Amino acid sequence: MVISAPELPSADFLRILEQSYRGILVAEPEGLCWEQESRRWGIPLQRHDGVLQLVHPEQAWDADRLAADSGFSAEQVAIWPLCDSSNTRLLAQPALRLGLAEAQWAGHGRHGRFWHSAFGRHLAASFALEIDPSYATVLPLVAALGIYTVLRERLPELWVKWPNDLWIGQRKVAGLLLEGRHGPAGQRWVLGFGVNVQTDPGLPATAISLAEAGCQITRHELLLAILAQWRQDLPLLQQGGLAPFRRRWEEADRLRGRWVELCSDYNNAIWQVEDVEDDGRLRLVDGQRNLCIHAGQLRLRPLT
After folding, report:
1. Smallest Cα–Cα separation from 81: which of 46, 127, 117, 29?
2. Which end of the chain, C or N, has fewer beta carbons within 10 A?
3. E strand or H helix at 63, and its extent?
């Protein structure tokens, strides 16, 4: 769900939510409109015998198990029941390598768009990594191809939409966003990714979940598989750029040769997709004209 100006949940509500997520029974507070806040942020916090409890749509994240299975230390993994953005949190905390959000109130994507996600139904995570800055423009595409590799056998209609989205047929199932920040220790890169996992009536008609597409997988299993694939792919990216992924891109791409509409704040134009450059730019043609665009420049809409 896209929202233009995210509001903030109250500190008291966040405190109650953190305690409830850890399994602490919280007495119903006086003077706090927790029911209104629960509805506002889509949090399944309910009253039961005078205490507040969370009702999880899927098993809650287990930080210790996740750290053990993923190869991180417990101190490198953070789980937030509700946060502004997992990318923002990870960028601000250099000790963390992996952050997961059960729900976000200010997740952000390309073109400055904000969104919030349903509690506990999907995979919303951020992964801190080291990479040569010269490959930063290609990394989101390679990371999307990694998720594609994990799921392609289960989902024949899965494909990668340049530059960093995954679609099933004509509906979006996942997206990624790479962000960097300079700090005392140098450049810090964080790759945020979201995958619609469970059935969610709040998803727009243009989106789809893995469950709705017939793919049954837990968030824990999916996250571990994605991280394992990225640990194979990132060294290849560092060694050879986009070249080692060309064949996989040709398999995952469904826009080559098709006409697309490029949308900006000022005008729209029709171009034909030709290929992806080695630096991650999309190469388009229109008669005798050529155009190469970066991921953040324009929005791309396939034409039927």
Report:
1. 117
2. C
3. helix 63-70
Which H or E run contains 187? strand 186-195
Range name among 189-193, 206-210, 266-270, 274-278 with the lowest pLDDT average: 266-270
The H or E element spanning position 115 is strand 114-115
Backbone angles phi, psi at 16, to 5 degrees: -60, -40
Contact of 44 with 154, CB cutoff 8 Å = no
Q: What pLDDT, on a 0 to 100 scale, did the predictor assign at position 1?
A: 36
Spell out the residues 6+ positions from residue 105 whose beta carbon is closer than 8 angstroms to its own.
Answer: 6, 7, 8, 9, 41, 82, 83, 84, 116
CB 205 within 8 A of CB 108: no
More confident residue, 54 or 4: 54
Q: Is 231 left (phi over 0), alpha (psi -120 to 50) or beta?
A: alpha
Please tell me the distance from the alpha carbon of residue 4 to that of residue 113, in angstroms, as a whole number.
7
**Of 290, 296, 286, nearest to 260 (Cα)?**
286
114 pLDDT above the threshold of 70: no
Tokens representing residue 43 in the block? 């949090």
Rounded distance between C-alpha atoms, residue 88 and residue 190, angstroms:
9
CA 297-300-304 angle, 5° bins: 165
DSSP for 141-181?
A: HHHHHHHHHHHTTT-TTEEEETTTEEEETTEEEEEEEEEEE
Structure tokens at 247: 């064949």
> Does residue 235 surpass a pLDDT of 90?
yes
Structure tokens at 183: 């700090």
Q: What is the CA radius of gyration of the chain?
A: 20
